[in-house]
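Please decode residue identities from the backbone states below.
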């Protein structure tokens, strides 16, 4: 809201963190508060990354908050999904710094699989899993490993998400990324086939 109005949103984050600290002091076992603070920390990380500042401490704090929410309530599906998103963003940041993102992406994929396992197979979860698989495919390609299975699985997730949503823009964007990476993986023969 502050950014849309032309104001710096950093003071709003500071106020939100103060409010979460006060609320958590009163009810430290409320998983909703931990996840809410985790979401705010993740969003701050995204803002800082856009400003070319280091988002990693905020992504890590977000992951820890969602982890605490899951310790308190292992069935809290939003915490699984939000932690996966923060893990993927941290992994993408680590990859940009030249570090291996695959362990973080493996954890993100496990978290999203938990969401789907709990039968909360929403378009959001499928799209998020597709995004994680595209990031994992990029990491495998950078390490000279086969990424084909990850890309095919990502395309399946995006297709399932598109079938379940009325707003497929993000789904198609992710699917396009997976198709481009698959074309890179297959090389110059990717465009050849019976339709040409």
């Amino acid at each position: 809201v502050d950014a849309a109005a032309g104001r710096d949103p950093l003071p709003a984050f500071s106020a939100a963190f103060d409010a979460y600290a006060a609320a958590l002091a009163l009810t430290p076992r409320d998983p909703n508060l931990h996840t809410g603070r985790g979401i705010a920390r993740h969003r701050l990380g995204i803002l800082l990354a856009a400003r070319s500042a280091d988002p990693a401490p905020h992504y890590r704090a977000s992951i820890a908050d969602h982890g605490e929410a899951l310790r308190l309530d292992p069935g809290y599906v939003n915490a699984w999904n939000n932690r996966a998103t923060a893990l993927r963003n941290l992994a993408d940041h680590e990859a940009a710094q030249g570090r291996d993102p695959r362990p973080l992406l493996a954890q993100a994929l496990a978290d999203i699989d938990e969401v789907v396992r709990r039968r909360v197979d929403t378009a959001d979860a499928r799209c998020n899993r597709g995004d994680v698989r595209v990031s994992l495919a990029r990491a495998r390609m950078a390490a000279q490993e086969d990424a084909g299975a990850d890309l095919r699985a990502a395309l399946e997730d995006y297709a399932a998400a598109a079938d379940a949503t009325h707003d497929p823009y993000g789904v198609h964007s992710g699917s396009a990324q997976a198709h481009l990476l698959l074309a890179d993986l297959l090389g110059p023969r990717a465009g050849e086939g019976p339709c040409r």
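Observation: Residues 188-196 have pLDDT under 50 and may be disordered.
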